[in-house]
């Protein structure tokens, strides 16, 4: 069996912060999403590969070297050229050869052990499922109906979900199923694995489900990204920074090297402040601020601000600000 982490998308739902940064490398706490996945995969001692695109290849090289994993690069540079998840699976299969594959979406954060997951594998297709507890929310995902642990219905993004149990982006596809990808791609949706699962089920493939609880985050929106930060940031990580004696830090927070926390600023709880940021007389909580950003005389709550921005004299709530933006209100 091989492990394949899918990180070749262009993450347009999180633009502009993912326009030049791959979603799998967004920070969550003091690590990035891919760190969490590779740490879990490392426990399996299986050959592991990350699938990405030519545009983001350089971003992933250092992680491949650090963790000793392979890199599969699809030859695309733009959103309109992308192969889609199933197309990228075919690309990886052509390069790595036939085998059973544990496939993991590179934007997923999940609580369960991959070893426990594989203990449920019996040679047939296996998917990890999670109860989101809300029918409206379930409409965004592949909705599963079970009989015991056997999948009897799978609908990708249904208008009227039959359950709140959804597929989470962690799958095992046996060799015989991987060898059907060509057949599926002749007339199938290249992008979402859910349609492939649905197609398999309609053709008599037995699919079993591994149910888990605690937490699961599909980092596809600002809200899910910030909720993941709140769940996974358990303790503070404060590097070498300059901090005013009048500033206050409310844990947990991450404040990276070279940041300056000046004046009567209040940072936290659940704040990520990137390298070389300058925060002066400002309150920041439940937010992610990327490197090199300057924030003065402002209040930031449940917002994501990309690198090298300047924010002055503002109150930002539930905002997403692209890189190099300059926003201010008159003094």
TrEMBL record:
SUPFAM superfamilies, alphabetized: Nucleotide-diphospho-sugar transferases
Gene Ontology MF: a single term: transferase activity
Keyword annotations of the record: Transferase
InterPro entries documented for this protein: GMPPB_C, Mannose-1P_guanyltransferase, NTP_transferase_dom, Nucleotide-diphossugar_trans
Residue ranges constituting the Nucleotidyl transferase domain according to the UniProt record: 2-234
Keyword set includes Transferase: yes
Start and end residues of each Mannose-1-phosphate guanyltransferase C-terminal domain: 249-313
Family designation: Belongs to the transferase hexapeptide repeat family.
Organism: Thermococcus thioreducens
Name of this chain's protein: Glucose-1-phosphate thymidylyltransferase
């Amino acid at each position: 069996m091989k492990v394949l982490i899918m990180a070749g998308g262009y993450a347009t739902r999180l633009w502009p912060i993912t326009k030049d940064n791959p979603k799998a490398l967004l920070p969550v706490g003091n690590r990035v999403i891919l760190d969490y996945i590779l740490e879990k995969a490392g426990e399996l001692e299986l050959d592991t590969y990350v699938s990405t695109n030519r545009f983001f290849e350089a971003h992933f090289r250092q992680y491949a070297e650090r963790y000793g994993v392979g890199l599969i690069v699809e030859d695309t540079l733009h959103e309109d050229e992308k192969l889609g998840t199933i197309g990228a699976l075919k690309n990886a299969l052509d390069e790595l050869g036939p085998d059973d594959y544990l496939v993991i979406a590179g934007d997923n954060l999940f609580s369960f052990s991959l070893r426990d997951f594989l203990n449920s594998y019996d040679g047939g297709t296996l998917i990890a499922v999670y109860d989101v507890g809300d029918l409206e929310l379930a409409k965004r995902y592949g909705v599963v109906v079970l009989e015991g642990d056997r999948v009897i219905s799978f609908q990708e993004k249904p208008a009227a979900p039959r359950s709140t149990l959804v597929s989470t982006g962690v799958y095992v596809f046996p060799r015989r199923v991987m060898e059907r990808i060509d057949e599926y791609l002749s007339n199938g949706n290249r992008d979402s694995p859910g349609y492939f699962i649905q197609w398999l089920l309609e053709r008599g493939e037995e699919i079993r489900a591994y149910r888990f609880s605690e937490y699961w985050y599909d980092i596809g929106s600002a809200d899910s990204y910030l909720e993941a930060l709140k769940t996974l940031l358990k303790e503070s990580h404060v590097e070498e920074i300059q901090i005013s004696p009048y500033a206050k830090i409310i844990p947990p927070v991450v404040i990276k090297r070279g940041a300056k926390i000046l004046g009567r600023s209040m940072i936290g709880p659940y704040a990520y402040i990137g390298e070389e940021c300058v925060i002066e007389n400002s309150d920041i909580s439940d937010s992610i601020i990327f490197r090199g950003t300057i924030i003065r005389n402002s209040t930031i709550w449940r917002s994501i601000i990309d690198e090298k921005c300047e924010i002055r004299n503002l109150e930002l709530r539930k905002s997403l600000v692209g890189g190099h933006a300059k926003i201010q209100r008159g003094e």
